[in-house]
Amino acid sequence: MENYSKINQDIKTIQNEMFDLMSELYPICRSITGEGVRKSLNIIKNHINLTINEVPSGTKVFDWEVPKEWNITDAYIIAPNGGKIIDFKKSNLHVVGYSIPIKKKIQLEELKKHIHTIPSQPDIIPYITSYYNEDWGFCMSHNQLNELSTGEYEICIDSSLKNGSLSFGEYLIKGEIEEEFLLTCYICHPSLCNDNLSGVVLLTFLAKYLENLNTKYSYRFLFIPETIGAITWLNLNENKVKKIKGGLVATCVGDSGESTYKKTRRGNSKIDQIVSHVLQYSKTNYTIVDYYPYGSDERQFCSPGFNLPVGSLMRTPYRKFLEYHNSGDNLDFIKKESLGDSFRKYLESILIFDQDEKFLNTNPKCEPQLGKRGLYRNVGIMRSDANTDDVEQRELAIFWILNLSDGNNSLLDIAKKSEMPFRIIFETAVQLYKNKLLKQTEST
Ligand code: ZN
Question: Is the pTM of this model over 0.90?
Answer without folding.
Answer: yes
